[in-house]
Write a structure and sequence with these properties.
alpha/beta, 7 strands
């Protein structure tokens, strides 16, 4: 009996698809990549998700009330140690975040506008707002869609630091990824537009991934809209790259700029609705 129990308890006896330790071996990376592609893909197919609008932006760009609260805390700390250069720097950063907190409202309103547009045009399962599923601008995008009563997707990534999905993602469309590569594939796979708000390395990574794929004809052209012209001109100068001869002059035209939710929505509508694009008085950026 003891021998039988030992056999049944042996790691070797665990069926391969039930063996977590086996599935996490380095040699199973290819299998994990395939699974990480298939689980979201099959789920989205089953739920009738045909296309998406992808929204990126900084996790630290929070709602104005929260940004002001954080600034107040930093100013209190500086008041207690007025000669601390690091605290002065933190106050300056917090002030810049307050200035950018308006983008939270822009992202939230834009997501509501997309929802209204899809309802008006009967585009069920199309132009579903998709974000990285985290806080900040991503939360704002999911929040606006949620408030409009339409499904919204969050593609989270497991990281060494603690991260949780924001509360506005549709539960059946809340995914978690191990690999950035597969997460980026799912961002792009159904994307009909990409809207990038001010953000850090993650936002830049997703933006440049899309620009490279469109530039090299690995994916069809889609609207790529940068929100906040001043920020983006400071962070990324496409015209400089063209003048240096490292990209073609036409590549600069892959990018559009917008400052508010209506401008973003109009760019996308003009792209996909010829009647809107060709109507009298319609202007493009």
């Amino acid at each position: 009996m003891d021998k039988m129990r030992a056999l049944l308890d042996s790691p070797a006896y665990i069926r391969a698809d039930d063996d977590a330790n086996f599935l996490h071996r380095d040699e199973l990376r290819g299998t994990r990549l395939q699974l990480e592609y298939l689980k979201p893909e099959l789920t989205l197919q089953e739920l009738g998700i045909k296309s998406t609008i992808v929204l990126f932006g900084g996790t630290r760009i929070v709602e104005a009330s929260e940004a002001v609260l954080r600034l107040g805390r930093q100013r209190e700390r500086l008041a207690a140690s007025p000669n601390d250069p690091d605290l002065r720097r933190q106050v300056s950063i917090a002030e810049r975040i307050v200035a950018k907190s308006r983008y939270y409202d822009v992202a939230r309103k834009f997501a509501r506008l997309v929802a209204a547009w899809t309802k008006e045009t009967g585009r069920d399962g199309e132009f579903i707002v998709t974000t990285g599923g985290g806080p900040g601008i991503m939360e704002a995008g999911n929040r606006g869609a949620h408030e409009a009563g339409v499904p919204t997707i969050g593609l989270n990534i497991s990281l060494p630091m603690e991260q949780a999905p924001n509360a506005y993602i549709s539960p059946e469309l809340c995914f978690q990824f191990r690999y950035f590569a597969l997460r980026k594939l799912h961002f792009i796979h159904r994307a009909q537009a990409l809207v990038a708000f001010p953000g850090g390395f993650g936002t830049l990574d997703e933006l440049f991934n899309a620009l490279c794929l469109v530039q090299t004809r690995k994916m069809k052209p889609i609207p790529i809209i940068l929100v906040g012209r001043d920020f983006w001109h400071a962070a990324f100068d496409a015209e400089f790259l063209a003048s240096e001869g490292v990209i073609a002059p036409a590549d600069v035209d892959l990018i559009h700029y917008a400052e508010n939710a209506d401008e973003i929505a109009n760019h996308i509508r003009q792209w996909y609705e010829p009647a809107v694009r060709n109507s009298p008085g319609t202007e493009t950026a």
